[in-house]
Amino acid sequence: MVLPEPSWFTPVAGAGQRGRLTHCEQIDEIRPAVFSIRLLQTVVSMTELTMRILRLLLCVALSAGCSAIAVAQQGASPPKEVVSSSGIKLLLIPAGTFMMGSPASENDRDRDEILHQVTISKPFYMGRTEVTQGQWKKIMGTEPWKGQRYVQEGDDCPAVYVNWHDAVAFCKKLSAHEGKTYRLPTEAEWEYACRGGTNTAFSFGDDAYDMHGNVFEWCSDWYGNYPSNPLTDPRGPDSGTFRVWRGGSWRGVPSFVRCANRALNAPENRFNSNGLRLVLE
Known about the structure:
The chain is α+β, with helices and mostly antiparallel strands. The chain is built from four helices and 14 strands. It has a five-stranded antiparallel beta sheet with strand order 3-4-7-14-8.
């Protein structure tokens, strides 16, 4: 009688007496392969986890780097002085609010100096001095003061005999040459810089030179009456007959060089006592 083979025997062809393996023996042979597969799966899983961790760390690093850059940019202060290609030195003027004009108690004040509050909303750069003859020649290649009476010539002397249109042309040519925006100051910017934080008739500091006297300086504004209400970044009337002069000159009386004093002239006129000072935006 042939007994049925137990369920835990599996026939293997051609194996002779050892041609039959138990399930336990089969499992022993299969186990390494299963272990290898599981090990591979574990490695893959760990690799994916590692990649996720690396991606997370990269994101954190980039975020921290961007934040550091933003903080650095916010905290970085602009230079206090810049120099143009023609050697013009310009000082940083911070934004702020001041009282433009003069109080009724100021000696020699004029009626057009109505006291009113003005806010300069953005910092700007203003020339440390008036544009000199040497700087004018480098940009324009001309000498409008040459041979004129009562003019002291020299590269460090102020460029004079320039009318308002000449001054604007100089700004445009310098701007095109450097790829920046140079212009004449507004009347408000001029007085704000001249005062340097003071509210007296005259201001004498260490930063900008000759804003009291030397030569009159063209401003961009048409001449017009001041309002009494507060203003922000005023630019004067839209039209007019005369352009504003500021600062007084060597030919004027002392009251002309007060911070609040306003002078005016036709934009086509040239004199030996007028020049220009630049603003860089």
